[in-house]
Amino acid sequence: MFRNYLENAIMPNNSSIYIIIWLFIQLLIEVNCQTTLFNPLQRYVHTATLIDDKIYFLGGRDDMNTVKIGREFFYLDVSVPFDTQTILWHDLTSFNTVPAHISAASVNGGANNKTLFLYGGVTHYNATMALVYSFDTQYNSWSIPNLSSDNVIRKDNLKGIVDDNGKMYLFGGHSNGTRYNDMLILNTITLKWEIGTTNNAPSPRSLYGTTYVSQMYIVYLGGYYATSDNDGVSLSLKEVYYYNMADNYWLTRVTSGLDEQRIIIFGGTNNLNNLTPREALYVLNLVNFEWSIPKVSGKIPGSRYWHQANVVEKYMVISFGYGYNRKVDNDILLLDISNDEEYMWTNIFDPNELKSPPPTESPKVSPNTPATLVMFGVSIGTCAVIISLLIGGFYLYKWRKNKMENIRALPTPGSADNNNYVHEALAVSTRSNVYNHGQETIPTHENTHFIDNNRHRY
């Protein structure tokens, strides 16, 4: 009986070994699939939300209206360098509970400014979808917030802007064939709706460009308007509208108090005709209200629309869109806007260029080292450790099996050799505990997008 007890305590059955090996293999697959193998489908009318050092992408469609695209949920880590030709995407689709959709609006908000809020949009095949969702980026969990009112209607093809107080501003948009010019305001902290004024507001529109240019104003340009009596028109960029968030009123062509700010426009379309690369980039000076085509260097990409744009450090990060060829241009475009005299198209994103250098005693990474090589090295290192543990576990299993053969030949308890037997058993148990401890420590114009040079939060 004592021998059987020792054998069961020392030697796990075959199923336990298989379970351990299976867990290691699953960990290996998860590490590699979520850091190196995920390649999102090309899309447009998606959302791109910058929270801390990550840009979260959700929703969208392609020409085939693929539902899979609307379900994909992933992010781009902008805390590390990367090359747009070999991007390391991080897949969060397994955490996604939002129905497949297009043309929603999103911002970062909440009490800690680390929550993604998603409003509106159009579902695929009339699937049921809540008006607002929230995603906790710290716990990777979606929820449906309990809002103050049910009277707000669902709209699409509009943009969300968040202020420094966590309020999400939603102007205009489209619903059931109608364009609107109202201002919905969602307080992402108190979860209460407010309604802004429509006095002197722009005409009803969707697919406009917008940006937060100061602590008081949101700027709106362009867009699309259509009624049942016409096929729709792209709205002029000659009129610029400002919404004063503090006092709830609209202004047109007002530059007072907005000195030395610029709006950079990329892409868009004119009456559903895609722009040429040379027509795709403009700058509006908000001091003298003059449009200009900036001097640029680097390889000029083709134009696109139904894309998204975020500002991270000195880069304008343009994501996906419609009208570009994946064989020619990348899903992510980078425009270095640090030099007002000359912007530069580049493939290399390096957030460390504007940050303080690390202490001299800390190891440094060459700025010319592509991020994919660094991450690939980390992935390889992780794989090597896991494979080594698998091999080591297998040989330990064989060693213990052989040892059991010897144990069965030892005297039973109470014999003259009892002390040697107990000592040998303790030695095996000690090694087994070290092995188990090692396992436990394994780390388980229309559609124009533009930015201002002094604001880095979207």
From TrEMBL:
InterPro entries membership: Kelch-typ_b-propeller
Gene3D superfamilies named in the record: Kelch-type beta propeller
PANTHER family per record: ACYL-COA-BINDING DOMAIN-CONTAINING PROTEIN 5, FIBRONECTIN TYPE-III DOMAIN-CONTAINING PROTEIN
Bilayer-crossing regions: 373-397
The organism's taxonomic lineage, starting at the top: Eukaryota, Fungi, Fungi incertae sedis, Mucoromycota, Glomeromycotina
Domain of life: Eukaryota
SUPFAM superfamilies attached to this UniProt entry: Kelch motif
Listed name of the protein: 14089_t:CDS:1
The entry's keywords: Kelch repeat, Membrane, Repeat, Transmembrane, Transmembrane helix
Keyword Phosphoprotein assigned: no
